[in-house]
Write a structure and sequence with these properties.
InterPro entries: Preprotein_translocase_YajC
GO cellular component, one term: plasma membrane
Number of helices: 2
Shape: rod-shaped
Mean pLDDT: 86
Protein name: Subunit YajC of preprotein translocase
Membrane topology: Single-pass membrane protein
Subcellular location: Cell membrane
């Protein structure tokens, strides 16, 4: 009797693996579509926004500072906050672009 029970437990077949690993695979698929994929879309949109920055754009930094881009390099952005104040930030510190004033200056 004991030997027969161990044989049945030793060879569960495909149904046993499906019952064992099915919920794990299902959880991964749900996490992918609810967490990983939307995050990748947001990151792609942010990278696109950062690469499309240009002179004259009005931006808001991560710290909440509002300014207008007056110079750009690959890594830095120089913002004009008021008539005399210029501040240098990393390009990645730009959070949003409020508007584009084009080449008004």
């Amino acid at each position: 009797m004991w030997l027969a029970a161990s044989d049945a437990a030793a060879a569960p077949g495909i149904e046993g693996y499906l019952v064992t690993y099915g919920p794990l695979v299902l959880m991964f698929v749900v996490l992918y579509f609810l967490l990983i994929r939307p995050q990748q879309k947001r990151q792609k949109a942010r990278n696109m926004m950062l690469s499309n920055l240009k002179k004259g754009d009005k931006v808001v930094t991560i710290g909440g500072l509002h300014g207008t881009i007056i110079e750009l390099t690959d890594d830095t952005v120089i913002l004009r906050v008021n008539d005399v104040t210029k501040l240098t930030f990393e390009r990645s510190a730009v959070n949003t672009v409020q508007s584009s004033s084009g080449s008004a200056e």
